[in-house]
Write a structure and sequence with these properties.
Elements: E1 2-9, H1 13-24, E2 29-33, E3 46-48, H2 52-57, E4 68-76, E5 82-93, H3 96-109, E6 113-116, E7 119-125, E8 128-133, E9 138-146, H4 153-157, E10 169-178, E11 184-190, E12 193-201, E13 204-212, H5 213-216, H6 222-228, H7 234-241, E14 243-245, E15 251-256, E16 264-265, E17 268-270, H8 285-304, H9 310-339, H10 342-354, H11 358-361
Parallel strand pairs: 1-2, 1-9, 2-6, 4-11, 9-17
Antiparallel strand pairs: 3-5, 4-5, 7-8, 8-9, 10-13, 10-14, 10-15, 11-12, 12-13, 16-17
Helix pairs in contact: 1-3, 1-8, 8-9
Length: 362
């Protein structure tokens, strides 16, 4: 049985950021990720500038990847109404294919071990974890971080409450060549969902949307759904007419849940989407993943340095996470509920038209 200070389950944005942070603290860190790098992921691929200073602290400034600077938001509804706003902080577009690979190399350069495998089970016994992989490997760790994404078999093994609730959303993402202004991220509403469009690389456009499953399943395939439903919004119709797909077929994730999730389960600290998924109009999921990894890594470092016990580590992380994200999550759920009702959508867009400061505030 191999031993490590910290074992991180999942090598997405949150897992990699935490791994890099902890490795820089000279701790033994093992990250287990089921896919080799680089690989594409379903993601909006827009990062708020709120995390830039932290990435620079980690010596992982994404400027080395030539990201696309984004400063404005365009928002449309299916009725044709269009709103614009300057993003108060701004952000950048960057593909997960390049960004995750970049962070993986940074983590390894700082001493993190990355294993391509899949965790089958995690057990807690006498103040340490045992982690079993599907290849038959066994590890022991003082701390485990859960960074295994939006929904996983491990969620069911841990009996997480949200897994018992009905999930209504499907996520679809594709890369395209074509025309889209570099500095603009567009968010378009259509009946049953939202679609975001922005540059992920200077010559790559990311189109990613969330669709209610009940709306989607009435159609034969993604292409028909996009043509009949998404393109009922004239802005989306024009956007799809001006691009060509770079993937043979879009990437999809089903059973996307925005339900409440506990940030600590069976002494495992959850980060990124594993701790909670945020709606598009009330925050930035990539920045949230990075920020949650920072908070978790700082709490873990204090625990392993002996300045906090396990209970204090878990309580501190949960408190910090709630202070930073609970209001955003609650706002997101309320906005999503409004958008699922035509009257609510009309009221919200009307209010944003009358009070232009409301959109950048959201």
């Amino acid at each position: 049985m191999q031993q490590t200070d910290v074992l991180i389950v999942g090598g997405g944005l949150a897992g990699l950021t935490a791994a890099l942070h902890l490795a820089r603290q000279h701790l033994s860190v093992l990250l287990i990720e089921k896919e080799t790098y680089p690989h594409h992921k379903v993601c909006g691929e827009y990062v708020s500038n709120e995390v830039l200073s932290y990435l620079r602290f980690l010596n992982a400034d994404p400027v080395d990847l030539n990201p696309v600077s984004i400063s404005e938001l365009e928002f449309t509804v299916s009725s044709g109404k269009k709103l614009h706003a300057v993003l108060p902080l701004g952000g950048f577009g960057i593909s997960r294919y390049r960004f995750d690979d970049f962070l993986a190399h940074k983590a390894e350069a700082n001493g993190c071990n990355i294993l391509c495998d899949q965790v089958a089970d995690i057990s807690w016994h006498k103040d340490h974890f045992k982690i079993y992989t599907i290849s038959g490997m066994l590890f022991s760790a003082k701390v485990v971080l859960g960074a295994f994404g939006k929904r996983s078999v491990l969620d069911r093994k841990l009996s997480r409450v949200f897994m018992q609730q009905k999930t209504a959303w499907l996520a679809v993402k594709g890369h395209y060549s074509g025309i889209h202004p570099d500095h603009v991220i567009s968010l378009h509403h259509f009946k049953g969902g939202y679609c975001g469009i922005s540059k992920a690389e200077p010559d790559v456009i990311n189109i990613c949307y969330l669709a209610q499953y009940d709306s989607f399943r009435r159609y034969k395939n993604i292409e028909e759904y996009q043509e009949k439903v998404l393109c009922s919004n004239s802005a989306l119709s024009l956007a799809f007419a001006n691009v060509k797909p770079l993937f043979s077929k879009p990437l999809t994730i089903s059973q996307v849940s925005f339900a409440h999730k506990n940030t600590v389960e069976n002494h495992i600290l959850m980060v990124g989407d594993t701790a909670g998924l945020i709606h598009p109009l009330c925050g930035n999921g990539m920045a949230m993943a990075i920020h949650s990894a920072k908070m978790a890594a700082e709490c873990v470092t204090r625990f392993l340095n002996g300045t906090a016990d396990r209970e204090k580590m878990e309580v501190a992380y949960e408190q910090q996470w709630n202070e930073m994200f609970r209001k955003r999550m609650r706002t997101g759920r309320r906005i999503a509920a409004l958008f699922q009702k035509e009257k609510g959508l009309t009221l919200l867009t009307g209010a944003m038209a009358l009070f232009p400061g409301l959109l950048p505030l959201l």
